[in-house]
Amino acid sequence: MSSIVLFGPPGAGKGTQAQRIMDSTGLPQVSTGDMLRAAVAAGTPTGMEAKNYMESGQLVPDEVIINLIRDRVQDTDASNGVMFDGFPRTVAQAEALAEITEVSHVIAIEVPDGRIVERICGRYTCGDCSAVFHDTFNPSNVEGVCDSCGGNDFKRRADDNANTVLSRLSAYHEQTSPLAEWYDQRGIFFRIDGDRAIDEITEDILRALK
Ligand SMILES: [Zn+2]
After folding, report:
1. Model-level pTM?
2. pLDDT for the residue numbered 160
C-alpha cells in the first residue's frame, strides 16, 4: 500500500484533478475535514474527542487527526492506499503521517499567482439568474447585459478581489514551502505545471504517478 498527497493553491483546479486521479487510480480521497465530520457523526471514541475540541472552539490536535487517519487507512477501500487532500499542512504532520502510511508521491499543482488572480477575480454573476461570466474567458455578449435573462444586475464577490486572493495565496505558499522541501529531500515531490489545458495536467500527473 502506498498513498499520495495532493497539493494545490485555491483556484488551481485541484478539485478537478483530484476527481480524475481517483477515477484513474481507484484511490479514495481522504480529506481531514470530511473525516472529522464523519467520525463525530458516527460517535467513535476519537470522534467524540474531536467533538470536544471543536465545540470549545479549539483546533483539533494533530494526535487526534493522526488517530483518525490511522483508522481510515485500515479500511478495505484503502488497501491500495489513499489520496490525501488538505493534509499534511505542517512538517510535524508529515512526519507523523510517515509513521502510519507510506507516501510514495506528493503531487503539487503549480500555477503562477498572477494567473490565479486573473482566473478568480474576473468572475462575475448575474444577480437575477445566477449565470456566471468572466471578464477574459467568458464575457457577456453585450457589456453589462446578461446573455441568459437580459438582466443588468451583475455581482462580483467581495472576497474575489485581487488583494484577498493574493493574501490567500501567500498564506498557502508560506504553509507549503517547508513541506515541499521536506518531501523533496525524500525524492517524492513532483511539481506539475497547472497553467495548461486540464487534460495535459492530468496526463502529467498520471505520468508522475507511474
Ligand atoms: Zn441573468
Report:
1. 0.84
2. 77
